[in-house]
Amino acid sequence: MFSTSPSDREKKIFWQEMWRHEFEEAVKHDPVVIVPTGSVEQHGPHSPMDVDVVGPLHIAIKTANQINDFPVIVTPPVWSGFAHYNLGFAGTISLGMDTYRNLVLDICRSIYANGFRRIVLLNGHGGNHAPNATIKHQLSQENIFILTLSWWELVKDEMAKLSSSDGSDVGHGGEWETSVQLYLRSHLIAKDRMVPDRDLTNPFSPKVQEFMGGWGAFAERRRDTEKGSGTMGNPLAASAEKGEAIVQAAAGKLSLLITEYHNLPVREYKEFGSYCP
Ligand SMILES: [Zn+2]
Questions:
Q1: Does 270 map to a domain?
Q2: Which residues have CB atoms below 5 A from the ion given as ligand 1?
Q3: Does the predicted model carry a pTM greater than 0.90?
Q4: Could you tell me if residue 235 is inside a domain?
């Protein structure tokens, strides 16, 4: 699964390819484990279903490959996410909130049980963003302290600077997600099917909508975009060059973040007198 030939790489980075003795050696060096979280769901008429899986997976691979001072290991991506609002279009496979949360919680708990103390959930799907934060808070009471972020949070400035349409908004199958796919897998983007479309974020009451929040509000992709295409943003503005620039920038920022995380001591929360079960 997601293997590349050994000649492509100088070191192993995939959890699922490692041997037992390699795990035992890795845990001695304050390793960081990246778990990409994504979704299989519609991304407009021009995109494949796994846009949100492939983006964070490749950013994780690039990051792991550019850090040589300590082990960075990439697990198989979580391919299904909290994506009920995309079920109105063909191709979406969604998990319920509790299923998703429990799945990712158990993955993190297992990684921790293997001796790995530093875990990063690198997310590529907007619907997983809030659930991942909840997972982080839930794990903290189990003495497991993880980082959760969505890849576009790392590169807001770069997106704003490089964009010719969508600015720093990652959208949905728009300029940015389509650029990343054109860079990574251009054969899976149907250029003749692209539809620029617009998010109708505040169709009813801007005031109420503000406090419902993006993912707590009515969000059904068939009806909450102007043309009902399921796209948010402008895929016509996408290019492989922009995709490459943003993936490289995200991997660079993530490498810095992960290095800081690695350098920090792991704090033990559950010690006598500081914790009430
Ligand atoms: Zn997406």
A1: no
A2: 51-52
A3: yes
A4: yes
